[in-house]
Amino acid sequence: MTALLITLPVSPYVELARWTLDRRGVAYTEEAHAPVFHVLATRRHGGTGTVPVLDLGSESLIDARHVVRRFDPLPDAEAEQLFDELFDVLGVAVRAWRTRTCCRTVRPRSGHGRASTCRRGSGSSSPQCFRGPSQR
Question: Are residues 56 and 97 in the same domain?
Fold first, then answer.
């Protein structure tokens, strides 16, 4: 049975899981979901609402840390500690930076309310963000 990888389109944790599976030659099918809708898919496969979830049939690995530890074990305690620090500190910082730089809050031309403008570029897998028509 081919493993099923439940993902979001843009996530450093999903990329880590993909790299690990590709590096180890693990066959998998990716099922990408839009934000919010991914929660139902992850729960359907034994997850908690976060991605990635790797459904192996007999068990589910519910985040990238579990995928790495299962398919690419680290050599010693020092490497484990470094991985945990990078995963918990740097991974969260990258996710926060990505959210801040991608989707900026702008004021509509009327000056009232707030709007977030983030769109996908043509042929690109990452969003291209802009501040509004007058600031492109």
Answer: no
pLDDT tens-digit map of 43-98: 999 888 889 999 999 999 998 999 999 999 888 888 888 888 888 888 788 878 87
Q: Alpha-carbon distance 54 to 72, whole Å?
A: 14
Residue 113 falls inside a structural domain: no
Element (H, E) at 40: helix 37-44
Distances (CA, A) of 121 to 59, 71, 80, 84, 125: 37, 34, 38, 34, 8
Cα 40 from Cα 38, distance rounded (Å): 6
Domain that holds residue 82: 75-104
Within-domain flag for 69: yes
User: Can you tell me whether residue 5 is helix, strand or coil?
Assistant: strand
Residue bearing tokens 């492109």: 136
pTM above 0.70, yes or no: no
Query: Do 69 and 22 reside in the same domain of the chain?
Result: yes
Q: Could you report the per-residue pLDDT of 8-49, keeping only the tens digit for each? A: 987 888 999 999 999 999 999 999 999 888 898 999 998 888
132 domain residue, yes or no = no
